[in-house]
Amino acid sequence: MASFVDRVVLHVSGGTGGHGCVSVKREKFKPLGGPDGGNGGDGGDVILRVDGQTTTLLDYHHAPHRHATNGGNGMGDWRAGKTGETLVLSVPDGTVVKSKDGEVLADLVGQGAEYIAAAGGQGGLGNSSLSSQKRKAPGFALLGIPGEERDIVLELKSIADIALVGFPSAGKSSLIAAMSAARPKIADYPFTTLIPNLGVVQSGDVRFTVADVPGLIEGASEGKGLGHNFLRHVERCAALVHVLDCAALETDRDPIGDLEIIEQELEKYEVDMSYAGADGDVVPLNRRPRLVALNKVDVPDGRDMAEFVRPELEERGYRVFEVSAASHEGLRELGFAMAAIVQEARDSVEQAPPRVQPPVLKPRSVNGKGGFSIRREERNLEPLFRVLGEKPVRWVQQTDFTNDEAVGYLADRLAKLGVEERLFKEGAKPGDAVVIGEGDGVVFDWEPTMIGGAELLAASPRGSDIRIEEFSRPTREEKREDHQKRRDARAAAREELENERRAGIWTESVNYKHSSRPADTEGNEAD
C-alpha cells in the first residue's frame, strides 16, 4: 500500500451560494409592511495551505473529490443565510498547483502560503435588497450561483538546496544519515529508497537541506526502474552531487561509466517553468553546479578505484571528494563545499534586482456598456447571436425563469448594460435566437423591448410582469397551428360559398331575403 504520493489530480468545487428569500413583512394592523426577504449566504472557498506537518499528498490520492460547504438560503424578517465554511486543504511545502493542461497556477513555498483552488458561489439577493422607488415590493429574489468547479494537479517538489543523484545502492541514503539527523531506510539491495528523503546539514555558519532521490539507471527516461518521476524533487536545488559507488560488485560498472549514464539521463529530463532562477530563466539539471563524491573509500577496493578515476574526473572539470558514509571520512570537506555553493546561490538571489512587471491599464467601460461581447454564429441555417461576458452569464444564473417578474428584471438589466443596443448594431432581427453563455447556454427568441422600465409594474400582480404577458412571443409550433387553423377556416368558408352558388342562393343580394317572405309582402301591399 502506498505511503508516499507526490502527484495527484484533485477535483475541487466551491460551495453553492444560497438563494435569496421572497417575503413581505406582516404585522397586526399592518398586513403589507414591505419586503423583508434576506439575502442568501455565499458558498465556501476551497483553499490550499502549506502546513509543515504535512509531508505527502497521500490523503488526496485516496479522496480526490473535495467540496466546500454551501451557503444557506435567506429568510424572512431580513435574516441572511449562513455563509458556507471555507474548506482548507493542507499541502506540503513546495507543492506546485497546475491545471490539467500543465499551466502553473501557484507555487506554494513557505509556511502558511495559500491558494484559492475553487471560489465559492455568490449568494442571491432577497427581495428587500431588490426594492427601489419604482419596484417597491418585488415578488422575486435572485438565486445563488454555483461555486467554481475544476480539476487541478498537485505536484510535490521538495525544498532542498543540494540533491544527491546516482545509481541505486550508491550510498546516497547513507550519506544523508551520516551528515544529518535524517534516518532513511538503508539496505543492501537496489531501489531501497522509494521516496525522497530530506536532511538538514550544518556546515560552519551555513545551514542547508540535502535531498536524496530514488536511484537512476540507464533508460530511466524511458520508464525503466523508477523512471524520471522523482527528479521533480531536485528541480529547486542549487547544485547536484554525483554519488559514485567505487566498490560496486557488478563487473560491468565503473564510476566513470555511471557518471556518464546519469549525466545522459539528467540531460533528457526537462525542467518545467515552476522553477526559475533570479533572472526568471530555467536552468537544466545538467548545467547546474555539480560535485562528485567517490563513496565507499573505506573498502580497500573502493579506495583503489577512487584513486584511479579521480584524475580523469578532475580533468573533466569536476570537484572530486573521496568520502565514506561508514567512517565519515571526507564528509566535512564535502559539507563545506556544499555550503559554499548554497551560500553563493543565496547571495545571487538576494542581489538580483526584482523584475517589476509594468502595470496593465484597462480603460473603464463607457456608460456601463462594456464587460460583454457578442459573437454571431449560425445554427440550423439560421442566425444565432451569442452574448458572452461575466455579468450577463452571472445574471442568467441568478434568474428564476419560473417567475415572470424575475425574467422582466433580467431584461431590464441586460437593456441597461447595452445588450439590446449592441444586438441592433450586429444586425439582429426580431425572432432571431440569442444565447447567453458558452455551450448550450440559455436560448431566447429575441424580441426588442419597446416598452421598458420598472414603472410599468404597478399594474402587475406580484411575481408577474405585464410586459411579458402582453408581448409574449408564440413559439414556432404555435405559429404553425394558428396558420393551419386560418387556412382551414378559409377553405371551409370558400366551400360554403361554392355550395350556395350551386344551389342558386346568393347571399350578396338584399332583395333575395325580402322576396323569400311572401307574408310580409302581402302585408305591406295591404298597408
Structure description:
Residues 467-503 have a biased composition (Basic and acidic residues). Its main location: cytoplasm. It is an enzyme of class 3 (hydrolase). The chain is of the alpha/beta class and 527 residues long. The chain has helices spanning 58-62, 127-130, 172-179, 255-268, 300-315, 331-351, 390-398, 404-417, 419-425, 466-470, 476-502, 510-515, 518-526, and strands at residues 7-13, 46-50, 65-67, 87-91, 95-99, 104-108, 114-118, 149-156, 162-165, 197-203, 206-212, 239-245, 290-295, 319-322, 373-379, 382-388, 433-436, 442-445. Strands 10-11-9-12-13-14 form a six-stranded mixed sheet, with helices on both faces. The longest helix is centred in the C-terminal third of the chain and has 27 residues, at 476-502. It is elongated and about 135 Å long. The termini are far apart.
Low-confidence stretches: 185-194, 219-228, 364-369, 509-516, 519-527
Structural class: alpha/beta
Number of helices: 13
Number of E-state strands: 18
List keywords for this structure.
527 residues, alpha/beta, elongated, 6-stranded mixed β-sheet, 18 strands
Write the layout of secondary structure elements.
Elements: E1 7-13, E2 46-50, H1 58-62, E3 65-67, E4 87-91, E5 95-99, E6 104-108, E7 114-118, H2 127-130, E8 149-156, E9 162-165, H3 172-179, E10 197-203, E11 206-212, E12 239-245, H4 255-268, E13 290-295, H5 300-315, E14 319-322, H6 331-351, E15 373-379, E16 382-388, H7 390-398, H8 404-417, H9 419-425, E17 433-436, E18 442-445, H10 466-470, H11 476-502, H12 510-515, H13 518-526
Parallel strand pairs: 1-3, 2-4, 9-11, 9-12, 12-13, 13-14, 16-17
Antiparallel strand pairs: 1-8, 2-7, 5-6, 5-8, 10-11, 15-16, 17-18
